Amino acid sequence: MSDNPETRVALVVGAGSGIGRATALKLAASGLRVVAADLNDEAVAKLAAEHEDIVSLGESWDAISATECQRLVAATVAETGRIDHVVSTVGWTAITRFLEESPEYWRRIIDVNLMSAIYLSAAAGEAMRETGGTIVLTSSEAGMVGQSGEAVYSAAKGGIVALAKALAREWARYSIRVNVVAPGVTETPLLESQGGEALLASVVRAIPLRRAGRPEEIADAIAYLSSDEASYVTGQTLCVGGGLTMSS
């Protein structure tokens, strides 16, 4: 693991599996020191044990708590001495019909998919106000066009796009860039929990590239927006979905 104080640090929240795990690996491979955080602390500990440039802080982190997000960012700085990039890949949904859902379900969807991004952005912005940095939030193509069976999820993910645009305008003065990656159908544990192959077969026909994405492909987009190659990019949403929203 690099002990160089000049090595930039990325905090990846949701790094226990899927897109978050792929992002942690991608950023570490690009030369960053990565602090991985997740509700599943065992998965993060295993990831850190296998890769010397990935750090686990040794506990579970719940991103739907404002206090936890503040504490996570502070713990990252305490562990590494700095924070330069923050990535949130937190997300969850189920495919259900809107009129069959409960207010409790809606609240959970909003908390996991939108409030977590708000809380983490606030903590990250405060920490990077003097130094600059990047924030990349993950939305969804459902947040761009709306998705049957995911009405409130679509609303929450659409909110992330608007949040990023507003913060990009506010925080340009601090040299903080804020961008969004909106994945389409991606081969992750969440997809498997929602029906796996049956669901995939039903939706892939609408995707121009005729396949689901891989977590690594989403991670590539996140890494780009976090990098100096995107130094003049802020307030943008990059859809990575095989052309699905293009054709909608």
From TrEMBL:
Keyword Ribosomal protein assigned: no
This protein is called 3-oxoacyl-[acyl-carrier protein] reductase/2-hydroxycyclohexanecarboxyl-CoA dehydrogenase
Entry keywords, A to Z: Oxidoreductase
Superkingdom per UniProt: Bacteria
Listed SUPFAM superfamilies: NAD(P)-binding Rossmann-fold domains
Please tell me whether the keyword Disulfide bond is annotated for this protein: no
What GO molecular functions are on record for this protein? oxidoreductase activity, acting on the CH-OH group of donors, NAD or NADP as acceptor
| Family indicated by similarity | Belongs to the short-chain dehydrogenases/reductases (SDR) family.
